Amino acid sequence: MIWLPILGLLIGAAVGLVSNWTIPVEYSSYLSIAILAALDTVFGGIRANLEKTFDDVVFLTGFFTNIFVAALLAFIGVQLGVDLYLAAVVAFGVRLFQNIAVIRRLVVTQIRAKRRRRFNTTS
Amino acid sequence: MHTRAKLALSLTAVSTVLGLMIGVQYRQTSATAALGLGYLRGTVDTHTLTELKNLKASNQAAEQELTQLNDELNQFERVSSGSDKAMTAFQQRLTDERILAGITAVEGPGISVTLSDGASNGSDVEQILTHDWNVRSVINELFTAGAEAVSINGYRVVATSGVFCSGPVVRVNNHRLGAPFTIEAIGDPETLKSALDIQGGILDVLRMQGLNVTVPQIKQKIVMSAYTGSLPGSPTYSLNEAIPSLSNNGT
């Protein structure tokens, strides 16, 4: 079950690399910020799962909304001459690191709890 | 279990989209780099490097050709050393070709004519100046009439010489010359003189234009130096080196 998302990631990357899809250079920054938003959402989903608060509807809507809003924010920033793009980069970047940190802690506590249980049962 | 399946499915969908975006972006970034938009400096370096490589290759090819030609020349000499008659014929032809190519100094009978700017009499100044095409047409006339060697103000005209206006001067073999232009030609003096003097000929045209053109003078002895530029395809130094080796073998 756990390899399915990884397989999906690889398939998506392969399709993206092989296909003849190109986006105009001026929209390239929107795509990069969308990637950042998507990464943030994926790690947020993993974290939610570990915290046992995962909701698939929230996750999916969050994913697409985040991508869309990030691109929109960048677009508005370009129109206004304000680098809102940077705001999105910073916000998503900070959250990304936070999520990864939380995931690490949760995993560590889980492993410790498991070991303690095993220790308790064996003794 | 139910939530786990949901998690796996939604995560799969999301990561597929994420992978797709990453793939497209990666390809785009590498394409931009290849176009030289992102890393302009590196591309220029690569271009220069390729150019250098090509130049080196062509240089090497030219050197090889030179060696081959020199070998051929030596072979000819060896063959001709057997019979004196063939040797003399070859030598004669070589000398003739060298004179026509302009790579040796020559002397002999010929004619001399001088073109200079006319005096302005209120008419268009452009008309009375000596232009490159004026000089060029006289030279062409002389060569057509059978001149073996032609020079402008002492600079030998060869097959690759250009006569061009550049600003106030005329460039001949990359030397800047100003009026008056003394054009000398070695050949049959009578033929050359009549070729220039013919009624309605080139000198008449130039005189009508307003230039000062002297009457062509027959000279019994004109000394003309060799062409001193580099000739494309055959570096002059190699030819000069070839000459002594030829005469050494001949004697």
TrEMBL record, chain A:
InterPro entries assigned to the protein according to its UniProt record, in alphabetical order: DUF1290
Domain of life of the native organism: Bacteria
Subcellular location(s) of the protein: Cell membrane
Keywords: Cell membrane, Membrane, Transmembrane, Transmembrane helix
Topological type in the membrane: Multi-pass membrane protein
Keyword Flavoprotein appears in the UniProt entry: no
TM regions (residue ranges): 30-50, 57-78, 84-107
Family (UniProt): Belongs to the sbp family.
Protein's UniProt name: Small basic protein
Species name: Alicyclobacillus tolerans
TrEMBL record, chain B:
Coiled-coil annotated spans: 52-79
Lineage: superkingdom: Bacteria
InterPro entries: DUF881 (IPR010273)
Alphabetical keyword list: Coiled coil
Assigned protein family: Belongs to the UPF0749 family.
PANTHER family (UniProt xref): UPF0749 PROTEIN RV1825, UPF0749 PROTEIN YLXX
The protein's name in its UniProt record: Uncharacterized protein YlxW (UPF0749 family)
Taxonomic source organism: Alicyclobacillus tolerans
